[in-house]
Amino acid sequence: xxxxxxxxxxxGETRRRAEVLFSVDLRNKVASICNQMHDYASRGYTPxxxxxxxxxxxxxxxxxxxxxxxxxxxRSYIETMIEEGSS
Length: 87
Known about the structure:
Elements: E1 6-11, E2 16-21, H1 24-43, H2 61-64, H3 74-86
Antiparallel strand pairs: 1-2
């Protein structure tokens, strides 16, 4: 087994990198989040998006789609997008 104590996040736009220390707490948090994601996937559940000011500059905005009304169903959203695309 090899010990990896740190890594780096590279920010392409600024061409800078930031060191990330892989502490026991961080490893446990990542494992917990991964387990939760696997649970969501196995149940076919998509959690509600919590929109915040960082959403507008997020690289995942087009995938996450934070503007969807939280009370609106996925089926309704998809049907609306199909209807708009066919007109």
